[in-house]
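Pasting two entries for a bug report.
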Amino acid sequence: MPNQVSVSTNTPHLYALIAGESSGDTLGAGLMRAILRLDPKASFIGVGGEQMQKAGLTSLGKMEVLSVMGIFEVAAHLVPIMRLRAALIKQLLKARPSVVIGIDSPDFNLGLERHMKKAGIPTVHYVSPSVWAWREGRMKKIKESCDEVLALLPFEKEFYDRENMPCTYVGHTLANKIPLQVSQETAKTQIELETTSVEPVQGKVMAILAGSRKNELVHMVPVYAQTARLIKKKMPDVVFISACPDKARAEVLKDLWLSHAPDLSLTIYVGCTHAAIAASDAVLLTSGTVAFEAMLLKRPMAVAYKVNPLTAIIGRRLLKINMFSLPNLLAKRRIVAEFIQEQCTPEALAQEMLKLLTSDNLLMKNEFLSMHKAMIKNSDEIAAKAVLSLIKKSGRNAVETKDNKAFNGMVEPSFTVPSNIAGADRAKRQEPRL
C-alpha cells in the first residue's frame, strides 16, 4: 500500500492539467475557465498549448513533445517524452496541487497520474482512452492511475459503469460551443477567403486537414497531395485550403506540400480551423477530433488514416471495432466513408471527394445535425463540478466556491508558483494565413 499523505500537504486552489495536443488544449482551456467560475482563487500549472496558456496556465513543459502518435513513432521520440514525464513528476510532487488532470494522451498521462495517486493527490483522466475499441486490458491501469474518468461520449459512460469505474459523462465542449447552423459565407468572410486564397475562388472549396501532429503530416500529406492532383484534373476550378493550430505546424505542412505538390496551390490558415472547415464545401481529413469538429460544422467529409506499417500490423491485432471516425461511432453505423491504411489511396480518396463536391449531401448533413442536437451539454461546467466534487470527496483540500460555501469549512491561501517553475510566455496572435 502506498504511503498516505496528511490533509495539509496538498495545495488548495492549485490545479494541474496536462494536455498533449491541440484538441486537449481546447478541452483544458474550457475546463480552466469553468473552474475559475466556481473557484475564483484557482491557479493552474502543467502542460498545454496556446489556449490553456491564455486561460492562465503556468507552463512546466512543451506540449509539442507529446504530440506524437503510433507505436513506433512514439518509440522514436521516447527520450524527450520520458524526460518530460520525469520532470513533471518531480515538479508536481513538489507543488502538490489539489488535483492532477490528465487530458487525453493516455500512454503519457496514465503513468503520470499513477505516480500522483500513489502520492495522495486526487487524479482525473479527461477523455476516455479507447478501451472500448482496443487494449481493453488498460482498464486495470486506468483504475490504478485515476480516481475518475471524464467521458466525452455517452457509450463510454455505459462501459465504465459495467466495469465499476467512477466516470462522469460530460459531453464534448465543442458540441455546446459550435452553433447548430454555421454559415459558409460568413466563414469565408471570417478568413477573408476571396483575398487570402492563393488561387481565385471561382468554384468549389475543398479543405485538406492532414493532422495536428508532425508524424501525421509526414504520413498523410504525400497521399493528400496526389489526391488533390487527381481532383484538380477533374475539377480545374476547385480551390484547396487547409488549417493548422499554430505557425510551427503550418510551416511543416507548407514544406511537405511544396515537396510533394509544387504544382498545386494550398492556402494554409493558422489558428482558425473551424472557420476553414465551415468555409469549405467538403473536407478531406485525418481521423481524429477534427472529424467530430467537421460533423458539428455540418460539412461533408471523407476520413483517412495511415501509419507506420508495423504500427498498423500490431494495431489490427488489438482492435475490437471496424469503424474509426467519431461520426460513425456516435451513429453506430457508417455515415462517412473511411479510408484506413491500404485503403488510403489517392484514387479512392479522389473518387469519394469528387462525389462529395458534386452532391448536396443533405442526408449526411441531417445526420450530423441530429447528433449535434443530442450532444449539447454544458460540458465545461459539468467537468469542473466533477473535478471539485472529487477534491471534496478526497477530504484533502478545501475549495472555496463562488457562493462562499467551502467544501469542508477550511479555506487556505491560494498557491504561489514556486520560483523554479518558469511562467508561461503568452502566445502571440498568429497570422491568418501562410
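Entry 2 (this is the one that rendered wrong in the viewer):
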Amino acid sequence: MTADATLAPPAPGALRIGPHTVWPPVVLAPMAGITNAPFRTLCREFSGGKGLFVSEMITTRALVERNEKTMQLIHFDASETPRSIQLYGVDPATVGKAVRMIVDEDLADHIDLNFGCPVPKVTRKGGGSALPYKRPLLRALLREAVAAAGDLPVTIKMRKGIDDDHLTYLDAGRIAVEEGVSAVALHGRTAAQHYGGTADWEAIARLKEHVPEIPVLGNGDIWSAADAERMMRETGCDGVVVGRGCLGRPWLFRDLAALGSGEAPYAPAFGEVAAVMRRHAELLGRWLGDEARGVIDFRKHVSWYTKGFAVGSELRRALATASSLAELDEQLALIDPAQPWPAHADGPRGRTAAGGRVVLPDGWLEDPYECAALSADAESETSGG
C-alpha cells in the first residue's frame, strides 16, 4: 500500500509496518466472527483500499493442524494487499510453527499477535490479555515468532493489563521493542474492564513515550473519524485501530480514509444501508458456498445496521430470522428507504458491558517471572476469540 499523493501525511510520516506503508494510518481490528473476508471486502471498498484490514483471530494450533474452519478463515480476496493475519497462541513452539507455515506457504504479508482478548475461554488458559503478565513467556513467544517470520513484519495488540493492580503494557511494549516487533497496538482498557467504561487514552500516550522506537497504535472508543483524529492529536500515537465502531457501519472507513480532509461524515439514508446489508449477506453466502448459511451468518449484523432507524420490533425480528436473500429482500422492502441516517446512531455500538474478575489459570498472578504450567489444551483447535 502506498501513500495517497493527494493527502500528504503529517509529520513524522505515514504509518510504516515493516515494508508496508499504511496511509491513512487506520487498521481494522480483528473481531471473531466479524472480520472475515466478506466484511473486510466491504470496509476496503468504502475506504478505496486505504488502510490495513486484519483477519479474524486464528489459533496457531488450529492453523498448524490445518483445521478446516481455520483454513477458510485465512482466505484472502485477490484484491487484499497487504494480507494481514492475527494469530493467537500460548506455546512458543506452536506459534513458531504457525508463523513458519505462513511464510513457507505465502499465506500472508503481515502477522499480528493477539494479547488483548479478555474472554474467559482464552484467559483461563493463559492466553490473550492474560499472557503479558508472564514476562518470560511473552518474550519467548515474540522471539520465536519474529525469528520464524523472517522479512514479514510482526506486530502485537494488547490491553493495559489484567486489572488496575496488574498492569503490563509498558513492560510488554519494551519487550516487544527488544524482540524486534514492528509495531504495538494498545486497547486502553484492562481485561477486567472488557468493553465497559471509558478507554484510557492517556495510557496510549504513555506507551508512545515509553517506546518511541516503533509505531504505537491506539484502540478504544473510536466511533467516528473525528474520534480517530482526536486520539492521534491527544496521545501522539502513530495510527488507530478501529473495532466496534464499524459494526453495521463499514462505511466508517470512508470517513477514516479522508482523515484531515475536513469532509463531512457519510450519513446514508436507509435505502443505502439496505443495499449494503444485502451485499454483505450475499458476500457471506459466496464465501461460505451456501446462500442460506450466508444469510444466517449475517443475522448477527442486523441490529447494528438498523440501529436508530424506525424499524418495528416484529420487522426487526423477521430480518434477524431470514434464511434466504429473497426473504431478506422482502423484509428490507418494507422499510422506508428515505429514512435519514439517525444522528444518535453514531455513538457506541457492540459490546459495552463491563467485566469483573478475570478468569486465569491457578497461580497465574503469584509471580510474573515464573510461568505456571499451561494445560495441554491451552491452544484450542478452534479459531476465534
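Dev reply: Rendering is fixed now. As a check, the viewer should reflect this: The CA atoms of residues 86 and 112 lie 4 Å apart.
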